[in-house]
From TrEMBL:
It holds the Pfam family FliL. It comes from Thermohahella caldifontis. Belongs to the FliL family. This is Flagellar protein FliL. Coiled coil: none annotated. InterPro entries: FliL.
Length: 135
């Protein structure tokens, strides 16, 4: 009995050591979605001059751990890009599927342009709206 317990502990410690070695050797590749939190709650202009409200949730897709770290580091600037774009877009455009897709593509383009300027690479692979409400 006393021989079984040390053998079990030895086997367990070897398995844990092997698992930590594999984790340390893991490549930088990592598909990850990062939420742009908190939600964007904005005033948007409608054609008649009436103020409308929009609540938007968005996420960005990155492919590496280093890209995820850069997104977290530059989150205030990314959020600024989103706020400026969304508030400059007419409410009618934000209410249509085609309009939202155009805004999504423009937001991605602007975020990637920022990272190309700052980091010499686009960093963000895609930008997605996960919730979009205009009232």
């Amino acid at each position: 009995m006393t021989l079984r317990i040390p053998s079990f502990l030895l086997a367990l410690s070897l398995m844990l050591a092997a698992a930590s070695t594999r984790a340390a050797e893991a490549p930088d590749d990592l598909l990850q979605y990062i939420d742009l939190k908190p939600s964007f709650v904005l005033n948007v202009q409608s054609p008649g001059g009436k103020m409308r409200f929009a609540k938007v949730d968005a996420s960005v897709k990155v492919l590496t751990r280093s890209a995820a770290a850069l997104v977290e580091q530059h989150m205030p600037y990314i959020r600024n890009i989103m706020v400026m774009l969304l508030t400059a877009t007419p409410a009618d455009q934000l209410r249509s599927v085609e309009g939202r897709e155009a805004v999504r593509k423009e937001a991605l383009k602007r975020v990637q342009a920022f990272f190309k300027k700052e980091e010499n690479r686009p960093v963000v692979d895609d930008l997605l709206f996960t919730s979009f409400v205009v009232q």
